[in-house]
Design a protein that fits this description.
The complex is a heterodimer of chains A (about 325) and B (about 750). Chain A is of the alpha/beta class. Chain A has 14 helices and 13 strands. The longest helix of chain A has 18 residues. In chain B, helix 7 runs parallel beside helix 9, helix 13 packs antiparallel against helix 16 and helix 15 crosses helix 16. Classes of the chains: A alpha/beta (about 325), B alpha+beta (about 750). The interface between A and B is medium-sized, with 24 and 29 residues.
Chain lengths: ~325, ~750
């Protein structure tokens, strides 16, 4: 904690995150929870998957988040004909210098917005996802490290939509958090209309956090304390997803890792120096939801509701997992 | 949503294993079983029954408490647990010595039980009512109570039809009804009905009218059934003879009541060949030790068939006898004793198995009753002359010591009076005449009510002493007084209970004079033994019966008697009764308690205290736990988690479900919805939650800088008081007396070991 607060202490952390949230919220109306989760993911060094029907502001959220942070941002619009090199970059022969020169692709940025990621072919998808996992790109035998911090914010349409290539589960597992925007309520929708009469509010958005500050904030989140009890709690939930009869695929160890890391960021955002079981509870669905696969019986009940029923299953598991609470029982 | 609501209600219902209902059920059984005091003596049997009921209902409660989520399984298992527990208890109580390790039944256990059942049949037949609840009777009672309690448990909990509990209760009420001398105690009946109604109302407070209806039906049927059902397994052969007359095994018990009864009931009719009236004997009472005299349980030798009697004991050949044949038709007399004149030489025409007792010449059966019997008795009428009686002198043959025995604490007034009365008389005959005349003269008077109001309406030497001072009583008192005084003077004596000759009727029986004997003719008289003659009847009761020729003052040869004044009873002698009414050492708890026996108070007080302590035990355990936690916090040693657990358990106690799967924040969110948990209460709750979170999930070294413990203790008491005031007083009471958190905790402990 002491090192983490060298440059960014709790108060300034709070101020800065407050600024980011307020800024993003001028663009995205009435979606506080989604915005907070997005920021949580960035602070926890995870990747964010925003999944929803078109036109609810997925890309807008990604852009607004990128605008609020003074960092390099790139945007890839995934299409079926997009090639892996369009993402990672390509070696081009420099005739002047008589050698191959690596032209860096859009993945070389602090924040990469991958729009409609499931419209690209699996080959291209995996090019991005491999770099996401490894933090580097290898082209022609040369390895190029990616920027740090590095966050991919990908959006995708629900798998039922036409012309989509669903992400394989192995790749979905690399996203720390999946959120779903959902339609705004009527008041929020009305406010959105008013605000966009004259200009796009996105243009008015200016960076409020420097890259350096973001790195410090991320470092601080790393230093958040996780007690053994809470770790045990997260593990219990993960174990339970593997045992549950309604689930065909349970949470991976990476999922548990992501859950705890995201919980740290959430605790920091909440102004706490330690993680609570409540953080785990709150993040269980966003972190685990996209990784689990319901068993045929549950899925067959209606695939349109699959994510809903998965959320129900996770809620049930969380509600049934005892919260570790000390030895006071016998005191 | 609706589903979760139902589930929550289901859980809430399951959390209450029916403690209130079980307690009410126990009360109902307690009161109803208390009604058996009319046929059973003492309170030990009652305590045993209640303990068995408590075991059955308690086992059910525990099972249901341990299976809060599996309601159906709990309902099935709870009566089974009751059966197992109560069986164990019965084995431990009645056959621990012959069972393996005290509780595993062996063939010897079964044998023991069979023997107990056999003995119980014998004991029930021969014991006076109220009977002493001896081992066999206790065993049968325990079996019956256990079965009925399990049936009630099934009705009340497994089937959830508490109204049907009325059936086992009615079964209990039937017991005094089918006992010849038993009577249902109205007070206990009313109390039982009230408790039963309370049980129904507690179950369905909204369905008041149906409950009343069901309760009324149960009450009315309980009242009617005992009268409707046949009293015994003997068929009524003499229908149309009116209500039954019940003398029971010990006619002494109800003799006074029967005499005082305004309405007379015909007991029997008879006719004699000679046309002369006859005294008819039922039982002999010769043991004057206990405080409640009655015939001793006889040994009925199957060989002693009454078709031929031996020669009467002590009767010499020179005594003149007159042969008599008596035709007796017994009406509704519920008695295992047969009315027979003395001394009979044969009884013929009897139904069923009857035996005579060689010492007393009484006839009894342990299989049937006298009701409806038609039989013919051949007997001798003893006609001893005064000379023969005088000649007996003071000689007493050996073998009659039983008829001379008196309890060591016999009040001296009896002996003093006897000596004063007999004065210079030398022979036993003269003494007997003197005593008879003394009792037949003023100031003695016949009264059926004076002993009751004077508090000496009972049998026993103390009552005889009281009677000698009060000079008022009925046949029992006169007969007892004469018998005891005779023994004081060395004359063998016994008391006979039976019927005085009755009244001549207008009709006839095959040309013979017909006599009718009613309840008003029930009578007791002394028989004294004279050497060479045997047992001779006397009649000390004024205005009752007839004085035999050989004891009549007017008769030739009978020694004259000058009756001393009323000062015979020396006022300076020990006053055994004092002014305090001495009640018959009867069966009810009340009588038992008023008997002045301090052990009674200790037993009842101890039982009550133990019961109260048992009821308060959960409350005390819970209270101690809470106080320990708060004290620890005040002293700075307790943990925030302990405060938190206290809140969780207190919430659980008042029915707020805060399981262990809720985070502290989840618990706070739930508790903040509780009425009154706002402002200071909410703040205190939040502070405790903060402290718990820091302590449990924060950095270990940071816990030290958490909220100071005494402040935490204040917050805790604040939250607890808000919780407790948020519910109505009934819930609060239940939470205090039967805290569910304790059950939950017990379950966790069990689960940990399982």
């Amino acid at each position: 904690m002491a090192q983490a607060t060298d440059s960014v202490d709790f108060a300034s952390f709070h101020t800065l995150t407050g600024k980011i949230l307020r800024g993003v919220e001028t663009v995205i109306d009435g979606k506080r929870e989604a915005v907070e989760l997005a920021l949580t993911t960035v602070l926890a060094e995870g990747h964010l998957l925003i999944e929803d029907v078109p036109g609810v502001g997925k890309t807008m959220l990604a852009k607004a988040l990128a605008r609020s942070i003074d960092c390099t941002v790139s945007r890839i619009q995934f299409t079926p004909d997009l090639l892996p090199s369009d993402v990672t970059g390509v070696s081009v022969f420099n005739q002047g210098r008589g050698e191959f020169e690596f032209k860096r692709g859009p993945v070389f940025a602090n924040l990469v917005i991958g729009d409609e990621i499931n419209r690209a072919s699996p080959k291209t998808q995996s090019a991005l996802l491999e770099s996401m996992e490894e933090g580097q790109v290898s082209v022609d035998g040369v390895t190029y490290p990616l920027a740090s911090p590095f966050t991919v914010v990908a959006t995708q349409n629900p798998v039922e939509m036409e012309g989509t290539y669903p992400l394989p589960e192995a790749q979905r597992d690399r996203f720390m958090v999946r959120i779903s925007m959902g339609y705004p309520d009527d008041l929020a929708e009305l406010a959105m209309l008013k605000r966009r009469e004259l200009a796009s509010p996105l243009d008015a958005l200016t960076p409020v956090v420097s890259l350096r500050q973001l790195s410090d904030m991320i470092a601080m989140v790393r230093g958040i304390y996780v007690s053994e009890a809470v770790e045990q709690y997260a593990v219990s939930i993960a174990q339970e997803t593997r045992r549950d009869r309604e689930l065909r695929l349970g949470a991976s160890p990476r999922a548990t890792l992501h859950l705890v890391r995201a919980a740290k960021a959430r605790a920091a955002l909440d102004g706490r120096e330690f993680v609570l079981p409540d953080d785990i509870d709150a993040l269980a669905v966003p972190v685990l939801g996209h990784r689990l696969i319901a068993s045929a019986r549950v899925a067959g009940a209606g695939s349109a509701f699959q994510s809903n029923s998965l959320a129900d299953i996770i809620h049930r598991i969380v509600a049934a997992t005892p919260v570790p609470l000390g030895a006071g029982a016998s005191a | 949503m609706a589903g979760s609501g139902t589930a929550a209600r289901g859980r809430a219902a399951a959390r209450r294993p029916g403690v209130v209902r079980a307690v009410l059920l126990l009360v109902v059984f307690g009161v109803t079983l208390g009604g058996l005091h009319t046929i059973l003596e003492g309170v030990v049997w009652w305590i045993l029954s209640i303990v068995l009921c408590a075991i059955v209902f308690g086992a059910g409660l525990i099972v249901r408490a341990m299976l809060p989520t599996r309601v159906l399984l709990g309902r099935i298992l709870s009566p089974l647990a009751g059966i197992a527990a109560v069986s164990l208890a019965i084995i431990l109580r009645f056959s621990a010595d012959v069972s393996a390790w005290g509780f595993v039944p062996t063939p010897a256990t079964i044998e023991r039980f069979q023997k107990l059942v056999r003995d119980a049949g014998y004991s029930i037949t021969w014991q006076n009512v109220p009977a002493n609840a001896d081992e066999p009777i206790s065993f049968v009672l325990a079996l019956g109570v256990a079965v009925l309690a399990v049936v009630a448990e099934i009705f009340a909990f497994s089937l959830r039809l508490p109204a049907l509990v009325g059936l086992p209760l009615a079964a209990i009420f039937l017991v005094p009804g089918i006992t010849p001398e038993g009577a249902t105690d109205g007070w206990f009946f009313a109390g039982s009905a009230l408790a039963y109604l309370a049980l129904l109302l507690a179950e369905r407070p909204k369905k008041f009218l149906p409950a009343i209806a069901v309760g009324s039906i149960a009450v009315v049927s309980g009242l009617i059934l005992p009268g409707v059902l046949p009293s015994t397994d003997i068929t009524v052969t003499s229908s149309g003879l009116g209500p039954s007359v019940s003398t029971g095994v010990n006619p002494m018990i109800r003799l006074g009541d029967d005499l005082r009864e305004k309405e007379k009931h015909v007991a029997l009719t008879y006719s004699t060949v000679s046309g002369a009236p006859e005294y008819l004997r039922l039982v002999e009472v010769s043991n004057f030790y206990s405080n409640r005299w009655g015939p001793t349980q006889p040994y009925l030798d199957p060989d002693n068939r009454p078709n031929e009697f031996p020669r009467p004991p002590g009767l010499a050949v020179d005594v003149l006898t007159q042969r008599e044949v008596t035709y007796i038709h017994v009406a509704n007399l519920l008695s295992p004793w047969l009315p027979v004149p003395y001394p009979a030489s044969s009884v013929i025409g009897l139904d069923g198995s009857w035996q005579y007792l060689p010492a007393s010449f009484t006839v009894a059966s342990n299989q049937t009753l006298a009701r409806g019997q038609n039989y013919t008795v051949s007997s001798m009428k003893l006609l001893p002359t005064p000379e023969q009686l005088l000649a007996a002198g003071t000689r007493v043959p050996s073998g009659l010591s039983d008829y001379l025995a008196l309890p060591p604490d016999t009040p001296t007034i009896i002996a003093d009076t006897a000596k004063t009365v007999t004065g210079r008389a030398t022979g036993n005959y003269e003494k007997a005449i003197a005593i008879q005349e003394f009792l037949r003269s003023a100031p003695f008077q016949y009264s059926e009510t004076a002993p009751v109001t004077g508090g000496y309406d009972g049998t026993g030497v103390d009552y005889v002493a009281a009677f000698l001072q009060q000079h008022s009583g009925y046949c029992i008192h006169f007969a007892s007084a004469m018998a005891v005084m005779a023994r004081e003077l060395g004359i063998p004596s016994r008391i006979i209970v039976g019927f005085q000759p009755g009244h001549l009727q207008n009709g006839d029986d095959n040309g013979r004079k017909l006599y009718e004997v009613t309840t008003a003719d029930l009578h007791a008289w002394p028989e004294l033994y004279f050497s060479g003659i045997g047992w001779v009847r006397f009649e000390p009761t004024p205005s009752r019966g007839s004085v035999p020729e050989y004891a009549r003052q007017s008769a030739v040869g009978v020694p004259p008697v000058t009756v001393p004044g009323s000062g015979a009873a020396n006022p300076a002698t020990r006053d055994t009764q004092g002014g305090r009414p001495q009640l018959d050492a009867g069966p009810t708890v009340a009588r038992w308690l008023t008997s002045g026996d301090s052990t009674a108070w200790i037993v009842v007080g101890g039982t009550l205290a133990a019961l109260i302590a048992l009821i308060l035990l959960p409350a005390m355990m819970r209270f101690a736990r809470r106080r320990r936690r708060i004290r620890a916090l005040r002293s700075g040693s307790g943990s925030a988690a302990s405060a938190w657990h206290e809140i969780l358990e207190s919430a659980e106690d008042i029915g707020i479900i805060v399981g262990e799967t809720l985070t502290p924040r989840g618990v706070v969110a739930r508790l903040e919805r509780v009425r009154g948990m706002s402002g200071a209460g909410s703040d205190a709750l939040a502070r405790i939650r903060d402290a718990v979170e820091r302590e449990e999930y924060g950095k270990p070294h940071a816990a030290a800088e958490a909220v100071p413990r005494p402040a935490l203790a204040r917050d805790l008491t604040e939250v607890l008081s808000r919780l407790s005031t948020s519910v109505d007083s009934g819930t609060r009471m239940r939470a205090a007396l039967l805290p569910p958190s304790l059950v939950q905790r017990a379950r966790r402990v069990v689960a940990r070991f399982a």
